[in-house]
């Protein structure tokens, strides 16, 4: 059963029918959600975006058939560890929140394909993210990341966006991502690049704009000659 309650100006969740498979609660005025939301284990899609949520119930971890969770644009300062129980999840969006850290249990999401965590306040990533072997896209723009942990397990990752963070050195963890095609490092504080970057076998797009690079490495021309699109620091949009 599909239930769409979006754009209803709801301030609290009404009683829900059983056997729900899709629930859309986007664009309301919800500040909290009841624990009973976890009593709908058949849910596959849950859209909580664009509310005023201060927290998520830990019972979300009971929704073990969930494949799509959208919880963008709220006031979350933490996310429950029980999100790590959602091992069938393929898409997770926790963007435009106030998260200062991400639950290490997210590393349990072995079927996750796309993870969007941009516009938060995180300084680091959990080392457990290396366990996200199915992940193809990781969006981390507009955080305060200063470094990345080793991520050798992200063997399926092809898109990584780190725009507008606090990186001052190139994260060497990125050199171990064999399928990485699109890398966005705009608006960080990176001054130098590793010489081995130009040997990355899959790189198709590298965005280095708005970094204080001291010199342009000569091997950038080699990257471009093989078809990689390189946006240089200081270039216009």
Automatic annotation (TrEMBL):
<dbReference type="Pfam" id="PF13855">
    <property type="entry name" value="LRR_8"/>
</dbReference>
<dbReference type="GO" id="GO:0005737">
    <property type="term" value="C:cytoplasm"/>
</dbReference>
<dbReference type="InterPro" id="IPR055414">
    <property type="entry name" value="LRR_R13L4/SHOC2-like"/>
</dbReference>
<dbReference type="InterPro" id="IPR003591">
    <property type="entry name" value="Leu-rich_rpt_typical-subtyp"/>
</dbReference>
<dbReference type="InterPro" id="IPR032675">
    <property type="entry name" value="LRR_dom_sf"/>
</dbReference>
<protein>
    <submittedName>
        <fullName>Leucine-rich repeat (LRR) protein</fullName>
    </submittedName>
</protein>
<dbReference type="Pfam" id="PF00560">
    <property type="entry name" value="LRR_1"/>
</dbReference>
<dbReference type="InterPro" id="IPR001611">
    <property type="entry name" value="Leu-rich_rpt"/>
</dbReference>
<dbReference type="InterPro" id="IPR050216">
    <property type="entry name" value="LRR_domain-containing"/>
</dbReference>
<keyword id="KW-0677">Repeat</keyword>
<dbReference type="Pfam" id="PF23598">
    <property type="entry name" value="LRR_14"/>
</dbReference>
<keyword id="KW-0433">Leucine-rich repeat</keyword>
<feature type="domain" description="Disease resistance R13L4/SHOC-2-like LRR">
    <location>
        <begin position="82"/>
        <end position="164"/>
    </location>
</feature>
């Amino acid at each position: 059963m599909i239930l769409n309650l979006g754009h209803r100006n709801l301030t609290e969740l009404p009683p829900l029918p059983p056997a729900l498979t899709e629930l859309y609660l986007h664009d309301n005025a919800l500040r909290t959600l009841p624990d009973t939301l976890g009593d709908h284990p058949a849910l596959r899609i849950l859209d909580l975006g664009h509310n005023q949520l201060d927290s998520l119930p830990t019972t979300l971890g009971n929704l073990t058939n969930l494949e799509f969770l959208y919880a963008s644009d709220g006031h979350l300062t933490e996310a429950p560890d029980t999100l790590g129980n959602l091992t069938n999840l393929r898409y997770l969006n926790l963007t435009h929140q106030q998260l200062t850290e991400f639950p290490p249990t997210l590393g349990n999401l072995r079927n996750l394909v796309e993870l969007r965590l941009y516009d938060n306040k995180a300084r680091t990533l959990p080392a457990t993210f290396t366990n996200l072997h199915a992940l193809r896209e990781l969006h981390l723009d507009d955080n305060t990341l200063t470094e990345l942990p080793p991520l050798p397990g992200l063997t399926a990752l092809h898109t990584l966006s780190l725009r507008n963070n606090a990186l001052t050195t190139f994260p060497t963890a990125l050199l171990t991502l064999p399928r990485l095609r699109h890398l966005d490092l705009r608006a960080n504080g990176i001054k130098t690049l590793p010489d081995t970057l130009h040997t990355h076998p899959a790189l198709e797009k590298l965005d280095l704009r708005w970094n204080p690079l001291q010199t342009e490495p000569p091997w950038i021309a080699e990257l471009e000659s093989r078809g990689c699109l390189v946006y240089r620091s200081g270039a216009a949009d």
